[in-house]
Amino acid sequence: MKIPIDLKTGEVSVESKKEVIVGIDLGTTNSLIAYMNEGNPVTIKSGQGKNAIVPSVIYFNETGGVEVGEVAKSRLLTDSDRTIFSVKRLMGRSYEDVSHLSQMLGYDIIDDKTSPMVKIRVANRFFTPVELSAEILKALKREAEEFLDCPVEKAVITVPAYFNDAQRQATRDAGRLAGLDVLRIVNEPTAASLAYGIGLDRDQHMNIAVYDLGGGTFDISILRLEDGIFDVLSTHGDTTLGGDDFDRCIMNHWLGQLNDKMGNVSTTPGMAQELRLMAESAKKHLSYHAAYEGRINGHPVAITRSEFEELIWPLVQRTVESCQLAIKDSGLKISEIGKVILVGGSTRIPYIKEVLKSLFGLEPDDSMDPDEVVALGAAVQADILAGNRKDILLLDVTPLSLGIETVGGLMDVIIPRNTKVPHRAGRSYTTSVDGQKNLRVSVFQGERDLVADNRKLGEFTLKNIPPMPAGLPKIEVHFVLDADGILTVKASELRSGTVTSVEIRSAYGISEEEMALMLLDSIRHAEEDLRMRALLESKNEANNVILSTERFIQQNSVHLSADEMERLQELKVQLAKASTEDSRDAIESAMKELNDYSSPIAHKMLDININEALKGQKI
Length: 619
Ligand code: ADP
Ligand code: MG
Prior knowledge:
- The chain is α+β, with helices and mostly antiparallel strands.
- It has four domains: 21-189, ATPase, nucleotide binding domain (Nucleotidyltransferase, domain 5), CATH 3.30.420.40; 198-367, Nucleotidyltransferase, domain 5 (2-Layer Sandwich), CATH 3.30.420; 402-519, Sandwich (Substrate Binding Domain Of DNAk, Chain A, domain 1), CATH 2.60.34.10; 528-613, Substrate Binding Domain Of Dnak, Chain:A, Domain 2.
- 38% of the residues lie in helices and 24% in strands.
- A hairpin with a 3-residue loop joins strand 21 and strand 22.
- It is globular, with a radius of gyration of 27 Å.
């Protein structure tokens, strides 16, 4: 036995350097943290409530303080504009991606047109989804540190199998911002099967279906276990389907009931939230009882289990169709699937178990708590990464195809969906014009044939190709997809011998190499770094908005009223002034004010211009 002695003080160092790697299920609705306790994964129960589940809700109080979890959830009713939920749905997404959600969110999401990622406004402060998710992770980290009585610095975080690169990268950044070294981003279904202990016995051979229906997302994965190796054969799902939608079914049902009785009931945001919470309690109640009765503002509302089943039938049917597609993709017959695992709170609904039983022809396994199973599996994965289970190898797959744009806007798939990661693949291209010096490489993700229908991850230009006749240069485009599903793209011109290579990443974040190098530093400086990056982004956006405002004023000077002109100038100057200072919130506020003012005017100008053009045509 070795006893460490501090040479400076001559004291025996009693600090046993135990390293804990935690597993985190960062859910849309609920989050959990788990760790390995003498070979068994256990979730960490929070100090007060002794409940492992932390609602993924963030509340900002009037003095700028932040609260996460149950306390925040209780604010949903009273302070809906300061209480952020479902932030996972916004991770790594643009305003366009999520604008259809703005109605149900109850808080303000911002479209400033120039930024690729959506922002959230709380009073006069502006946040990114990464910053908000980091608040949830910080709360979980704090809880774990208190419980384990040691620093927690390393983590495995799970994401839905359908998360794309930008969403995975955003999750990683949130971890970094919370002061965590994120060792691995793991697909939730992979974690779940690990929690069930599947794969820990080398002689076990079977095919497994993992059905995960949470609050906001649905995933089905078909896994194969062979020789102690997990292999994800296929995945399918829907990032906008979950228990929240069941709540909405009940809400609408009740609104119908109320309207029948009292004519058109107009709902205030507060009342809508109250309805939402009561609908959720009713849904949970119906998992164990045949009927629910309650009161909203003194009016009775009711629903039976069979009514509920009828309401959610079309949604459940969509998950069944996803299951059928996943089975088809896996190349297996249904009868070859030996186990069905249930994940996510919504799988407690008896109707769903019934439907799955008849689809797969076997009783789904619900022996573990469907709320905890993903976090527990993440802890098992953390244990494997810590080197405690060297005999186990994990394979994961990319859920969407990755490729580049070729002539005519066609998608050229380089890594097809359901390819095991890590994976590298390359393809050769050439120029289409004599003496072409530059080649633009645009990277997309998706299953459609036209890139316009897929998701753009980024683009770059391969420069300084030596002048050659068209078709002669040999340009190699290389994709490297790492175990986290994060993509690096390189391009080089081989024939000339001068290898130019450029790397691009998903639209979000910095490169993996930089990440590794700067890891320690970045965790230490995460908060100021990210604040600075966000500030610079806001300054850039402000500049763009100023330029386009100037252009707008110039182009429409004939039609703008003196008042409009003056106000636009004023708001522009105000923004210019804000952007010279170091407050992102001030810049965002000024930008919002300008956008809010100019948008209707821009529409008006467009109408005028169209009308003029039409008149012009008639003459
Ligand atoms: P997520 O993975 O999205 O964070 P969870 O797996 O924690 O979600 O599941 C949360 C969802 O499960 C919520 O919509 C919640 O209402 C639902 N849920 C929890 N318990 C039950 C129950 N007993 N019956 C029906 N739905 C439930
Ligand atoms: Mg979940």
